[in-house]
Amino acid sequence: MANILDIKKGIAERVRMRRREAGLSQTALAERSCVSLGSIKRFEGSGEISLAALVRIAAVLGYEADFDKLFTRRNYQSIDEILAERKGGEWGVAAGVSSACCPRCPGLRR
What we know:
By secondary structure, this protein is mainly alpha-helical.
């Protein structure tokens, strides 16, 4: 499992690659995203950035939809949890969690 520093640096490196693929300098990205040039330089060097700034950068680069995927997959602890969820129906209500009326309601999983 990667540590937090590795994850941050990996994200920063991928952003740098996508920025370069788009033909944008750090200055151009800063101007288009309304993120300071210093923040972009710090991010690409260390991986440190605010979530709001990262989302703005992602939007400029065309990757804002990637944030919709964060935390969508359940982290199962056992095969029993998977089986219990599958028995819960189409939306996979986990064992011990009450069902609700639609996919947006608490307790339902896609």
